[in-house]
Design a protein that fits this description.
The protein is an alpha+beta fold. It has helices at about 5, 10-20, 65-80, 85-100, 125-145, and strands at about 30-35, 40-50, 55-60. Helix 2 packs across helix 3 (about 65-80). The model has no long low-confidence stretch (mean pLDDT about 85).
Length: about 150
């Protein structure tokens, strides 16, 4: 049986409840959809990018505590980064979830998501929006090469 305090630590609950940058911006330059058809979690990430620099980032949608908190952290991390820096931040997040503890080059804000190591069935919740952003940036990078 899952220990609810382990599954939803206070810092994770706070991230989900305060949901910074939670705003629909349908006229954004870039809209990324993150959707999990298994559970129904669905978010839209709204980004404005100028000269390879993320100038504005918000999100809107619905999902479980873990996916909403993870999306909150993603959007907060992406703000004011270059696309290259954003890709590195995303890789650091995935590395953090796939290794023991938080690496020195990691980020303390990722700590609430380390619980997915104990509950691997929640990995998709913690990575839903991050994976959508990663895929989008990879496609954008390929398009720039053409």
């Amino acid at each position: 049986m899952e220990n609810i305090a382990d599954l939803y630590p206070d810092d994770l609950l706070q991230l989900s409840q305060r949901a910074l940058n939670f705003e629909k911006r349908p006229h954004s330059q870039h809209i990324i959809e993150a959707y999990n058809p298994v559970c129904g979690d669905k978010f839209k990430l709204y980004l404005d990018i100028d000269n390879q620099h993320i100038t504005q980032a918000t999100f809107h949608g619905y999902g479980c505590v873990i996916s909403k908190a993870a999306t909150t952290v993603l959007i907060e991390k992406l703000k004011n980064l270059t696309l290259s820096e954003a890709e590195k931040a995303i890789e650091t997040y995935f590395d953090t979830l796939n290794t023991e503890g938080v690496k020195p080059e990691g980020d303390a804000i990722f700590r609430p998501f380390l619980m997915v190591k104990k509950y691997p069935e929640r990995l998709n919740c913690a990575t839903l929006s991050w994976q959508a952003a990663k895929n989008y940036f990879q496609i954008e990078k390929e398009n720039l090469k053409k």
